[in-house]
Design goal:
Elements (H helix, E strand, L loop, with lengths): L1 H5 L6 E2 L8 H13 L4 E5 L4 H11 L7 E3 L7 H4 L4 E5 H15 L26 H11 L2 E2 L11 E8 L3 H22 L10 H13 L3 H8 L17 H14 L8 H16 L5 E5 L2 H12 L7 E4 L5 H14 L2 E5 L14 E4 L6 H11 L8 E8 L3 H24 L10 H6 L3
Helix pairs in contact: 7-8
């Protein structure tokens, strides 16, 4: 708040790490705006709307703040002004901007500037180096607040890799698809005409599916387009009657003769049992990008020698059920299966003290968010994180390498921007003197 009032900029960016508590300062800004007779607009990911709505109910006394979750683009400005807070999603804002973009460019007095690249080619961001890196860091530090996680006292986090071997058949199929993916990329780079309409992503997705469970390729070919991202929650809900029946039959077949088993599932169950032996009262999050792999995980847990009941938080769970699921888990603990695309990994789940990441995620920040959902203010137990990694799986190695490369520059940048309360932001000369 101090920075907002005393900065040359109109506002500030609160960029604390996951779990440090950005919600409370945001609510304070909203409260101050209400006191001055102003309204606030809060834009979050679509999957976080439920959590933010709940936070407003928790932070403010009943009937003291009017919150609208904006999903209807036809609402008038007069209607919106009846509310103290407009809560909406990035996806909603993006859609509305795209619809109005052509109109905005024609309005001479509009205080909106649209930057066009002047080319049909897609742009790619490149991290600056040397002096450019330092100048960018200084620019961001002038309006950004990012405190280190050590600002608050939290229990320790223990992270480890649960390494295992795919069976010979699993490795052969998965690695074959991965090698096909690399081959198609090379041919496309050479502009080979026969590969013009070939999609390398399809091979990459099949490599991932074979590495998780052999039956995933079959069900995914029926349910999702080959180009769909694994973490895209829009495909979690099946609407076609024929596909629903195929999915039901597929699930039923998984329970027959232990068809739910695969090397990755076996490793998950073995590590889960190991952790439960250490702490019978542990509460567990199991995270994966594929809701269909989580279907298999659920069947596997229900077919254990001592069956384990699980809760689900994914794209198939409706709004009201999601809230009940979170409340039940926070109250009773147990095992909660979470799909990355549903946004569940960003929720406050301090009841969890054990996290399984079934496959290496593409970005380290996604893993950080997943861990931060449990390792945050309110957690009073150490948090144990297990990443399942196939030692002979080229797909797992590819994901891990990409994640490490992407995280390298991000970590370097965040380390410079981190500063404790009361510490002045670095200036360009200091950065240059430090060798940046």
């Amino acid at each position: 708040m101090y920075l907002v009032r005393n900065s040359l900029q109109e506002g500030a960016m609160l960029a604390d790490p996951t779990g440090l508590g950005k919600t409370l300062p945001a609510m304070m800004v909203v409260a101050e705006s209400m006191y001055k007779g102003r309204f606030s607009i809060v834009v979050v990911t679509a999957s976080s709307l439920l959590q933010w709505e709940s936070e407003f109910e928790r932070f403010f006394r009943p009937k003291t703040v009017k919150v609208l979750v904006l999903k209807d683009p036809t609402l008038s400005a007069e209607e919106l002004l009846k509310y103290d807070v407009i809560l909406t999603s990035y996806q909603f804002v993006t859609r509305q901007y795209a619809r109005r973009e052509a109109f905005i460019t024609k309005v001479r007095q509009a205080q909106t500037e649209t930057v066009f690249s002047g080319t049909t080619k897609k742009g790619r961001a490149t991290f600056p180096i040397g002096v450019g890196f330092s100048r960018l860091a200084q620019l961001l530090a002038s309006f950004m607040i990012r405190r280190p996680l050590s600002t608050i006292s939290l229990p320790l986090v223990y992270e480890s890799e649960s390494k295992f071997l795919l069976t010979e058949e699993e490795a052969r199929k998965s690695n074959s698809h991965y090698e096909s993916y690399q081959h198609i990329l090379r041919m496309k780079k050479k502009k080979a005409p026969e590969y013009k309409n070939t999609y390398p992503l399809a091979e990459l997705m099949q490599a991932s599916q074979e590495a998780c469970h052999p039956s995933l390729v079959k069900i995914m070919s029926l349910i999702r387009p080959s180009f769909a991202d694994e973490g895209d929650a829009s495909y979690d809900v099946i609407k076609d009657v024929g596909k629903i029946e195929a999915w039901k039959k597929w699930k039923e077949s998984m329970s027959i003769n232990d068809r739910w088993r695969s090397s990755r599932i076996d490793e998950l169950i073995n590590t889960f049992n190991f952790r439960r032996d250490q702490d019978p009262g542990c509460s567990t999050l199991i995270i994966d990008e594929s809701v269909y792999f989580l279907d298999i995980v659920q069947i596997a847990f229900e077919n254990m020698d001592e069956p384990v009941k699980v809760l689900r938080f994914d794209g198939r769970v409706d709004r009201d059920s999601r809230r009940k699921t979170l409340d039940d888990f926070q109250r009773d603990g147990g095992v909660l299966l979470v799909s990355r695309g549903s946004g569940g990994i960003t929720m406050n789940m301090t009841r969890a003290d054990t996290i399984f990441i079934c496959c290496p995620l593409w970005k380290r920040c996604l893993e950080t968010e997943a861990i931060g959902g449990a390792h945050r203010h309110g957690q009073n137990k150490p948090v144990y994180v297990f990443r399942l990694v196939g030692e002979n799986c080229k797909m797992d190695q590819h994901r891990a390498k990409r994640r490490k490369n992407k995280d390298k520059n991000n970590t370097k940048f965040m380390d410079i921007l981190n500063r404790s309360d009361g510490t002045q932001p670095p200036v360009f000369d200091q950065l240059r003197a430090s060798g940046e």
